[in-house]
Amino acid sequence: MPRISHIFLQYTTCSCSHLWRIERSPPSYIFGTMHVSHERVWPYISKEIRQAFSSSTHVYAEFNPTDDTYWDDFLRCIVNRTRRVERSTNAATPGKIVDVHLMMEARRSNKTTGSLETPEYFCEKLFMVANSTTWTLAVDTIKSRVKNGTFGEPKMYEPEEFLKAYICSEFDDEYMENLWNTSTEFDGIVMRDENMSRRIHSLLKKSKKNRYFFAVGAGHMFGKREHLIVRLKKYGYKIT
């Protein structure tokens, strides 16, 4: 039986509703994504999230795979860094995770798209994964697949318990705190929360007419620290 059918049977009563509304006229929204294959979670995305995305005019994610300039800046940073540090390995083929799916759909719908984090951030995070030649080939492949709509689905490690918690909207501050204590994946999250909150605030100030839809990893909205939502509220936004 296909995996998606198994998931459907297991989580048929669940609905993913990790959505925050920024109260303004018109409203904008923050959607808590999960960096997994979109086919595993998209059937459970709530009607409210779908409507918020559909009504938006501007869609921003942590990075924008549809922007060639973004990839060019990323590669330039990779090349500069690998001149100092050379290391070869096999690069994994990027997949159409939820965030990428949203950005490609936004592009097909002629929405304005953009990124909340800089190419330099991802360069610093990923430059040791492969050498500059491998990254150049990978980025060329990404650009081509994004343009023709065939950005593939890799086999991804997706812990079932974590997936269920996301699909069934079971994430909360305590759940995420426990997760952070057992994983290094969230290293640097405080700085990322700060940088993305500044970026979102800047975009919201720039135009009060745009309907923004911000797609950000759900982990940035939970926890006992000053997470993304807390930081945005400090700018004076009412978020529900």
Please, could you describe this protein's structure?
With 240 residues, this protein is of the alpha/beta class. The protein has one domain (3-66, 93-115, 151-234). Helices cover 47% and strands 10% of the residues. The protein has helices spanning 3-10, 38-41, 47-55, 68-82, 98-108, 119-126, 132-148, 160-167, 173-180, 189-206, 228-234, and strands at 19-22, 28-33, 58-61, 112-115, 212-217. It has a five-stranded mixed sheet, with helices on one face. β1 (19-22) and β2 (28-33) form a beta hairpin. α4 packs across α6 and α10 crosses α11. It starts with a helix and ends in a 6-residue tail after the last helix. Mean pLDDT is 80; it is low at 1-9, 85-95 and 153-157. Its main location: membrane. It is an enzyme of class 3 (hydrolase). It is a single-pass type I membrane protein.
Mean pLDDT: 80
Please give the oligomerization state of what you see: single chain
Distance between the termini: 39 Å
Largest sheet data: 5 strands, mixed
Counting DSSP E segments of at least 2 residues, the number of strands comes to 5
Radius of gyration: 18 Å
Task: Count structural domains.
Answer: 1
Question: Helix tally?
Answer: 11
Structural class: alpha/beta
Family: Belongs to the TIKI family.
GO molecular function, one term: metalloendopeptidase activity
Pfam family, one: TraB_PrgY_gumN
Membrane topology: Single-pass type I membrane protein
